[in-house]
Amino acid sequence: MEKVVICQICGKNIAKYSCRLCGALVCENCYVKEKGICIRCAQGKFI
Ligand SMILES: [Zn+2]
Ligand SMILES: [Zn+2]
Q1: How far is the CA of 29 from the centre of ligand 1 (A)?
Q2: What's the confidence (pLDDT) of residue 47?
Q3: How far apart are CA 27 and CA 29, in angstroms?
Q4: Which residues surround ligand 1, an ion (CB under 5 A)?
Q5: Domain residue spans of the chain
Q6: pLDDT, tens digit, for every residue of 9-29?
């Protein structure tokens, strides 16, 4: 079995990053690199 982690937000792409706020494993599309958080956290609060 391969250890492929699927993005916890979109559920489509391979998760390469983890949100430093909520710890969610997310893909490139669902990650805000400048802030190191997922788009879900980025939408919830502006840091
Ligand atoms: Zn995603
Ligand atoms: Zn998050």
Answers
A1: 5
A2: 47
A3: 5
A4: 7, 9-10, 13, 27, 29-30
A5: 1-47
A6: 999 999 999 999 999 999 999
